[in-house]
Design a protein that fits this description.
Layout lengths: L1 H13 L5 E7 L2 E11 L2 H6 L11 E17 L6 E6 L5 E8 L3 E17 L11 E3 L1
């Protein structure tokens, strides 16, 4: 795990990260790092990962909502399974949905969410509810 985090940190430092670099912490320990494209508009959030190839390890799509709300994610038009991390305005991970199947249009909803991070399934780090995201 330490080697993986070290490699992720080197990768983040050595290339353009897209819109947002972030880390995830459990207590004082960093448990994950990632690079994300930010979808901040309603149009960008509604498109999400539809029509895209699977994201490489360490890359994600960060959905930014204007207010904390109930956030519902569907995976109906996406051709690969995803893992979804739901984050409150203060950076606390509220919930994690793993292995959300490709083509699944059933909504997965969680309350008090301001940010959603979508990863290609099985490439997402072992994030869990209660962890803290820093960006």
């Amino acid at each position: 795990m330490t080697v993986r985090l070290g490699l992720a940190a080197l990768w983040l430092a050595g290339c353009a990260c897209g819109d947002r670099a972030f880390t995830v912490h459990r207590g004082d320990a960093e448990v994950a790092a990632g690079c994300a494209e930010v979808a901040a508009t309603a149009a960008a959030r509604s498109v999400g990962l539809s029509g895209r190839p699977a994201l490489p390890e360490g890359r994600a799509l960060w959905l930014e909502f204007p207010l904390s709300t109930e956030a519902c994610i569907v995976n109906g038009a996406v051709g690969f399974a995803i893992d979804v991390t739901y984050v409150s305005a203060d950076g606390v991970v509220r919930a994690v949905e793993r292995g959300f199947p490709a083509g699944d249009a059933a909504p997965r909803c969680h309350d008090d969410v301001r940010h959603v991070i979508e990863w290609t399934a099985a490439s997402a780090p072992e994030i869990r509810a209660g962890d803290r995201v820093r960006w």
